[in-house]
Specification:
CATH class of the largest domain: Mainly Alpha
Distance between the termini: 32 Å
CATH topology of the largest domain: Arc Repressor Mutant, subunit A
Order of helices and strands: HEEEHHHHHEEE
Largest sheet: 3 strands, mixed
Strand content: 15-25%
Helix content: 40-55%
Radius of gyration: 16 Å
Number of domains: 2
Strand order of the largest sheet: 1-3-2
Structural class: alpha+beta
Number of strands: 6
Number of helices: 6
Amino acid sequence: MTKYEELLDEAANAQISVDEDYHFKSALKGLYIDQNIALSDRLDTSAEKACVLAEELGHHYTTVGNILDSSDFGNAKQEHQARVWSYNRLIGLSGLMKAYLHGCRELYEVAEFLGVTEECLRRAIECYRAKYGIYTEYEDYYICFEPCLAIGRK
């Protein structure tokens, strides 16, 4: 089962309907409104759909009200919370470690192993670097975020 299929199941279990082929007139990739998620018909891959669906599920779990006006600080903060939720749901420190243990060494290998896009993975790593600093420890491993992603055993 792909990450995208897992997220579709999660949405169904939370009684959230998902329109997987919505035609937005703008560049919007996804939208969450009142137990409904619309995904753009321009999303090409399962990985891309997973990244957008996870963020929209993040809105379900972490945001309140209409936050479409990104110039509002409160809205921007809620948008960030939804993205962080999606990064943790899709990737997380445990996912980075599992990819390393699976033999993934290049960014594209990690993204493929986790079922996400490289862009989503890069943004998640930036988010983790902002949260943890240059590196963090997870179980018996260290995870370095600078100058590039590196994982090793303590």
